[in-house]
Amino acid sequence: MSAPGRVVALLVSHDGARWLPAVLDGLRAQTRPVDAVVAVDTGSKDGSADLVESALGDLLVGGVERVTGATSYPAAVALGLEKAAAAHPDAHLDVHPDSHVDRDGDWAWLLHDDSNPDPRALEELLAAAAEQPDAAVLGPKLREWPSLRRLLELGVTISGTGRRETGLERGEYDQGQHDAVRTVLAVNTAGMLVRRHVLEELDGFDRQLPIFGNDVDFGWRAAAAGHRTIVVPQAIVFHAEAAHRGARRTPLTGRHTHYQERRAALYTLLANSRARSLPFQLVRLALGTVLRVIGFLLVRSVGEALDELAALVSVYSSPREVHAARRERQERQVREPADVRRLLAPPWLPYRHGLDFVSDLAAAATHQAADVAERRRAAKAEHDPSSMAARRRELDDDEEYADTGVVARFLTNPVAVALAVVLVALLVAAREAYGAVAGGGLSPVPAGVGDWWRLHVEHWHPLGQGTGVPAPPHLLPLALVGTVLGTTGAVSALLVLAAPVALWGSWRLLRVVGRFVSPQGAPRWLLLWGSTTWSLVALTSGAWGDGRLGPVVTVAVLPWLAHAALGFADPEPDRRWRAAWRTGVLLALTTAFAPVAWPFAALLGLVVLAASYAVVRSGLRDRSVWAPPLVALAVPLLLLAPWWLPSLLERAAEGLLLEPGRLPVPTVAPLDLVAGRLGDLGAPWWLGVVVAALAVLALVPRATRVPVLVAWIVALVAAVVAALLGTVTLSLATVETGPALGFLVVVLQGAFVVAAVLGGQGAPRRVAAAVTVVAAVVPLGGLAWSLAGADASLDEDPRSGIPAYMVQAATRGDDHGILVVRGSVEDGLTWVVRRGDGVTLGEDEVLALAPEDDALTRDVQQLASRPTPALVTELGDRGIEYVVLPAPADGAVAAMLDATGGLVQASAADPATRAWQVDRPVADDALDGPRSWLRVVLLLVQGIGLVWVLVLCAPTTQRALERRRR
């Protein structure tokens, strides 16, 4: 049974020629024909309008109405209804509010140019309208086109976070499981059958929703106005969702479909929510947008993340539009908000979607790992026909030992037991780093992580007499870790975990490198030797015991950096680009702690590219071959711009060749470079020489000579850079030192270890067994030396010599400085101004590069020879409250200061220490310095660049892959 009344189909098209033939066939094939068709074309350039005119003939009212592409969907619908009313005034389809005739039997059937109705669609919709006469809006079951069986929508609602909810599982097929007619909040405009007087009463669709979200908003407004919306599953429409899937772009969406969809969702929620819940909704949507942005960044969907922010800003910056929409809806509201609320999505649904997102991330990481493993198995099977049989034997062994338990399998694996022993030994060897550490080249950490953040952000540092030398680059990663663990925990964790992380990373690297030689890879005992030897480099070199963070971090990060750089040899361009971003991030982290890493990487990259060009010239013509290494080199320049650029501008370029820690840096002789030692620090020299000798012997086997030569190229580049830097002397204000060569020492040892492992893999078994006895001395000797705790100096107290009450007074502000003068008139005097809680990690690097204050130097000289009250006043103007001569104080200088007006003797715990307080007003603006907008810009570039690069390094979820394929 059909409902009485006239049905006018309203078809809106825009560049839909690829779908329109089927849509028009479906429209003409309706078992209950439409009474008329009104067509509106919004600026199509593919002949859509002509196609509609030629296909519909007499059904078409007045030809196709052609308007510009900027015409919104609500405007197109309103224009179509006006045209139908003008052509058939007796059909009661006018949309003017002064019309008083009975128009309840008139219907408008909305169709898109990509929505193909089933032949019985209109008949089923009208039959449902006859059975349920209180229904004002009816919608069909939407199936995906062209699959035809996958469900898209059976009614739609919206969640409290603005997500469009259909109640369907992802990719659910139609098996009749949702075929009950039911009341819903809204139905899609693709196939919507709506009573004409309802459209007229609600003023059609909201013009603030030009293309997306107008169906949900219309359904919400209709429900609030007392009208009922139902979905009729027996009526079927096939929908291509061209605009949503990006298959078609219009002037209303451009390339930012997600922006339009998200803006529509935010506007719909704010315009229709209850008044008392509006403040909560505003806060919730803002916080939810931040979380969604983070989520999109995690799955490398930068465009969607920016669209999210843009949509929030667009809606929140237009409060008048939202207020006007809310006032209009309140005027028409007749139903209680609680009645409408039952049609909305359940409040717990967003949390389930959050769990789904986490599972998507886990699945993406799992799929990526499975993909790598599958490629390795395929390569192994290609080179070894017997690998399948070996795999069967492995499966049989797994079944045989499945009941023995994990512990039993662990205890019966000698390599696993040995690795566990090595790990425990490394943690025991790092026992002095549990807790607060300072001494040697390591300065104490500040009391709070805020000091690190402030030092990183500010342009002018109130250190000494103030300086514009930029904060060192390693301060940012330390501050990030310190935000979670605290300053003491950050440095302690770095020292304790450096060797275990290096053990893990070197095992992965050597396993992959070994597969370049043979599909089976290197034997596990060889991997054990190589990874253990590598993990001990930080300890045996002496860098760990002296608190030199540069080499320590290099040992931990370098295997991961080399592993990422191996991706440049991947045959697939996408993986080469992914390797570029990951290599760039790790190179930036290494450069932050060891600045010499960047020039070394640049020189090594040039050498490798030149060698590749000499071997395969045609290979470098592809941009995806040579561009990723260049991108990896450019990433550190971007991420570390707030450090290296101001260093050049402030004439502190010496910092580009130094590492974290106090000066001078340890000198490295040629033998120390080969033996992997920093000067006189570290284990006996012969342990490192054994590794170098094994690397030389690795050149003998022919099977592995080529990859061993590659390792030697890396070693030779490191040696050349070390030789060049060894000729440089850096003259700073307080000390002369050579460049920090700790990074090159570590690189050379790493190259030797890789060469030795490859050589052992290619050597005959008898020779390898004989050499193994000698090689085992290296890790065993290194572990024994490390466990003995030799040459460690991380338990010193660098804060002695200054009375405690003065230190406490200095923490009240940077203007309460302490002038510390050491030495004697005969031997020479040195001075330093202590402020705050003293020179801490990060500040010592800034002070070392700061130029000498010649004026204060002259004041100190005059203070030791001819002090005057005017000079004391000048000290107060410089923000100096105390003068201290630590033990042993020069008696002649102390006698002069005792007799100087304006200096009051102060107490000191050590009788040999003399101290005075400046009895003059202390200037609170003595250390004020200029502000720099360049610093702000560079920090913004660093922050945005860091997020951007990390996003490009992240795994891609299956959903993101599907969106890209579309």
Automatic annotation (TrEMBL):
Biased composition (Basic and acidic residues): 374-395
Segments of this protein annotated with the region Disordered: 374-396
UniProt-listed Enzyme Commission number(s): 2.4.-.-
Enzyme class: transferase
Molecular function terms from GO: glycosyltransferase activity
Keywords, comma-separated and alphabetical: Glycosyltransferase, Membrane, Transferase, Transmembrane, Transmembrane helix
UniProt cross-references to SUPFAM superfamilies, sorted A to Z: Nucleotide-diphospho-sugar transferases
InterPro entries hit by this protein: Glycosyltransf_2, Nucleotide-diphossugar_trans
Segment forming the signal sequence: none
Transmembrane segments: 475-504, 525-544, 596-616, 625-645, 683-701, 708-734, 740-760, 767-788, 933-956
Protein name, per record: Glycosyltransferase family 2 protein
Organism phylogeny: Bacteria, Bacillati, Actinomycetota, Actinomycetes, Propionibacteriales
